Amino acid sequence: MSANSLPEDAAVWHSLDVDKALDLLDSNADSGLTSEDIQQRLQKYGPNELKENAGRSAWQILLDQFSNIMLLMLIGVALISGFLDLWAWRTGSLKPGEVPFKDTIAILAIVILNGILGYVQESRAEKALAALKKLTSPLVRVMRDARLVEVAAKELVPGDMMLLEAGMQIAADGRLIEQSNLQVRESALTGEAEAANKQATLNLPAETDLGDRINLVFQGTEVVQGRGKVLVTNTGMTTELGKIAAMLQSVESEPTPLQQRMTQLGNVLVSGSLILVAIVVIGGVIQAKGFSNIKELLEVSLSMAVAVVPEGLPAVITVTLALGTQRMVRQNALIRKLPAVETLGSVTTICSDKTGTLTQNKMVVQSLFTNDKTFRVTGEGYAPTGDFLLNGEKVFLEESPEISALSVACAVCNDSVLQKEKGEWAILGDPTEGALITLAGKAGIEKDQWNSKLSRVGEFPFSSERKRMSVISQVQSVATGETSLNAVDPAIANFLQSEPYLMFTKGSPELILGRSTQIYLGDRSTGLTEEQRQKILRENDQMASKGLRVLGFAYKPLSEIPPEGSDETSEQNLVWLGLVGMLDAPRPEVRTAVQECREAGIRPVMITGDHQLTARAIATDLGIAQENDRLLTGQELQRMSDQELEQNVDLVSIYARVAPEHKLRIVQALQRRGRFVAMTGDGVNDAPALKQADIGIAMGITGTDVSKEASDMVLLDDNFATIVSATKEGRVVYTNIRRFIKYILGSNIGEVLTIAAAPLIGLGGVPLTPLQILWMNLVTDGLPALALAVEPPEPDVMQRPPFSPRESIFARGLGSYMIRIGIIFAIITIALMWWAYQHTHARGYQGNPDAWKTMVFTTLCIAQMGHAIAIRSNNQLTIEINPFSNIFVLAAVVVTTILQLLLVYVEPLREFFGTHYLTMQELGVCIGFSALMFVWIELEKIFLRVVGKKAV
156, 232 in Cβ contact below 8 A? Predict the structure, then answer.
């Protein structure tokens, strides 16, 4: 078979036998491929590498920042201002002491700073693909031309014969040809924590899930134990890892709700200002009956354009988001992408893994069945404290010796260790065995003590084929001549007569029961009847239906140590002890978090690779789903079209036996339904879904580097409750962003209307220069806005549905508030401006006639301080709010007022900013007019309270 006729579809390699696979790839199990074959296949398939699509360069990202419509308008303003200054400089019409180009330099500096700020946020390169590439091995051993050689992994081709041994990272996908005790850790790819036991001789059904294809190996996974020979079937982008890379690169990043709203805001502000500029210029030309005042009209237009753009807003938003990330880190949520802070507040659906996120990732025994009784076991985690309950009543161990007997088996037939680290109980070893040691501890059976009473002298280890394990222990003698068990501990005094050894066996309940001929009841063993067998099996089924993992226990007295390899004969005629049912118990705080989600209008959804009974039991227990709610399995999902899934996705709260690649389809279906989705994941295969989700959440403890790089947020404690806390913080951040946008833009509208009114009511000159407007927008607006950004949350922040991520920035009355307050600002300031102009141009006035402009400037700035104090609450009067609940607002008001007065009364600053000295009387008038702004907003609150309407 030539290279050109090799099969393209690798989806069925697990269903083919070894000879058929070798034949399809025209390879030889002993000699491998020839050098000629290698060259042909390299040309056909290319190198065994993950290919990366070209993204935007750093320069392109930087240039894109200056395509923002508000920055483009500021650039235009800077150029026109520079041209006017150049003309004045050339014609000698500059005022004495006036510095040319200062407005141009200041505006361009703001433009450049905003551009750099945007670049820094956006230029964080997506490193998920780089993390994927780290999973590939650099060198690999293969058979070629009947010789064993070591080659670079990128030179592998389909048909190569690859050799594996413990510790290796697998360099390509392949079909096992032969294996010896081969175990491969595939958790990064499949999500399964335990290593997979591989078998070369099996042929599996075509629809077998990825994690169950035990006759295949996959690129990026790790050999834990054993060795094997593999026929390479897929390389590069056709491997399972390559498919993930392709999916990652196919997912396009959408702008966040905040970015979309800021774009909308820019469009509205620029359009509005251009319309207003046109009205003022046309009105001025008509009023002057010609273009004699065109220079003055251009200066007015420039000032209006600068006034309408909130130059400080990007910086304030960035600082607000950064402060949000710091608060979230303290709650164990690490934000990787700054806009995600606000985006969290819009989440409508949280899709969560089960293991470790909703549960403790600690197996805990929930119930046991022995001596014809079912006992419930209490306690949390691996702490060996808890009670045994029978029909809801606490049971004392002296009255139920069968519990102690079963607990001894749990402790002795066990390879794990329970220990206390930094005040918390932890397990060294298998979590299932950890749960059994914890159970024994609750019954007062300590493993270390019993290891001395029953010293291990032999064992038949667990394997996936045997589905059981046995431990042979020697009963130690004491000085009295009696055994220590008979003399000291009555827990298993009746287990033996004169035999020196005991064998304890645990494993699959059906299998252990099938090898048992007797049963231990109370304090003695008796023959096992068929009726008792059926009752034990029914109890086993009932436990399993509750999602419990069930193990059966038995023992057997021995007169001698059984020879190695005699497990089949030795593990017969056992004495049945009982059933133990355990569960990866839910985190206790998650129930409250789920309830909080529901109150906040957020739907929690469980997505797990676990069995559907376990998934339903946990989801029902936590309140994620009701008893009879619909559950969807991975196989059912696989058979559904995208349209069918979309129709069902709002009806399903539990997905079980789901492969990580199904998560991407679930996210996309939810998004097509208009849902705003947060998705958790930890494996390599989760990366595409994390990137597709509106908020991708990676696990900090169990997560792979690939999943973390594809995510927006990392849970440092892998806890679902942390997601809910972060969502609350996101809502607070969005509320505060709306608050300071109202604050900033209300004054900006007032500035624009004031500037526009000056020439229309016949006042000479522009009341505010571009530099003064920049000062107001950056300092007198910026500092209080930053203080408002740390306003504490309102009490009902998690008692309302999430606001639509697609709502306008002006929604829910914000737009009307800005216009209303802007008009009031303008009316107050225009009234002051008219009075000040008349005052400074009155006969006998001793000051500078242009001092009226400084009075306008000062009034606008101080009025904003009153606005900042009043806007802290939408409904509460200022006197009803604790002034020290946000000390930063008071500090910002005081500091900004002092800075404003320095511009008026410090001569160097006065000269640079073009202000004039004000008398105490003039300053008092400015403060009096400014106070009207505060009074108006407080009166609005009283009016709305009286008419029973809630403010914005």
Answer: yes
In sequence order, the β-bridge partners of residue 143 are 148, 161
- Which pLDDT does position 865 carry in this prediction? 96
Amino acid occupying residue 749 = I
Determine the average pLDDT of the residues in 726-730: 91
DSSP per-residue letters across 885-925: TTHHHHHHHHHHHHHHHHHHHSHHHHHHHT-----HHHHHH
Q: Are 779 and 899 in contact (CB under 8 A)?
A: yes
CB distance 900 to 854 below 8 Å: no
CA distance 367 to 40: 62
Gyration radius of the chain over CA positions: 37
For residue 551, what are the β-bridge partners?
580
* Coil/strand/helix, residue 740: helix
CB 444 within 8 A of CB 395: no
In 3D space, the residue among 131, 128, 66 whose CA is nearest the CA of residue 337 turns out to be 128
Contact 176, 200 (CB under 8 A): yes
Summarize pLDDT for 281-332 with one digit per residue, the tens.
Answer: 887 788 777 777 777 777 778 788 888 888 878 878 888 888 888 889 899 9
Report yes or no: 734 and 803 within 8 Å, Cβ to Cβ. yes
Asked which of 49-53, 154-158, 511-515 is least confident by mean pLDDT, the reply is 49-53
Q: What are phi and psi of 177, to 5 degrees?
A: -95, -45
Nearest to 273 by CA among 778, 749, 740: 749
Cβ pair 789, 889 in contact under 8 A: no
Hey, what amino acid is at 656?
A
Angle between helices 851-870 and 814-840 in degrees, nearest 10: 150
**Listed residue (814, 937, 785, 802) closest to 876, CA to CA:** 937
| Alpha carbons 258 and 691: distance in angstroms, whole number | 18
Whole-number Å distance between alpha carbons of 633 and 640: 11
* Out of 40-44, 426-430, 716-720, least confident range: 426-430
* DSSP result, 550-602: EEEEEEEEESSPPPTT-HHHHS-SEEEEEEEEEEEEEPHHHHHHHHHHHHTT-
pLDDT band, residue 192 (cuts 50/70/90): low
d(CA 43, CA 65): 42
With a cut of 90, say whether residue 752 has pLDDT above it: no
pLDDT tens, 681-711? 887 778 888 989 999 998 888 777 778 878 8
581 touches 326 (CB < 8 A): no
Q: Are 229 and 169 in contact (CB under 8 A)?
A: no
CA 856, CA 854: separation in Å to the nearest integer?
Answer: 5
- Name the burial class of residue 553, with classes exposed (0-12), middle (13-18) and buried (19+) by CB atoms within 10 angstroms of its CB: buried
Is 352:720 a contact under the CB 8 Å cutoff?
A: yes
What is the residue type of 237? Answer: M
Q: Say which amino acid occupies 373.
A: K
Element holding 927 (H helix, E strand): helix 920-947
CA–CA gap between residue 98 and residue 101 (Å, rounded): 10
User: Tokens in use for 238?
Assistant: 């056709």
227-252 burial code (b ≥16 CB/10 A, e <16): ebbbbbbbbbbbbbbbbbbebbbebe
- Residues serving a catalytic function are 353
Q: Phi, psi at residue 511, to the nearest 5°? A: -70, -45
pLDDT on residue 136 = 63
Contact by Cβ (8 Å): 915, 840: no
Beta-bridge partners for 693: none
pTM of the model: 0.74
Instruction: Give the number of other Cβ atoms within 10 Å of residue 465's Cβ.
Output: 8
Query: 3-state secondary structure string, 36-57?
Result: HHHHHHHHHHCCCCCCCCCCCC
Sign of CA dihedral 839, 841, 846, 852: positive
Task: Say if strands 373-377 and 359-370 run parallel, antiparallel, or are unpaired.
Answer: antiparallel
Both tokens of 791, joined, read: 């306003």
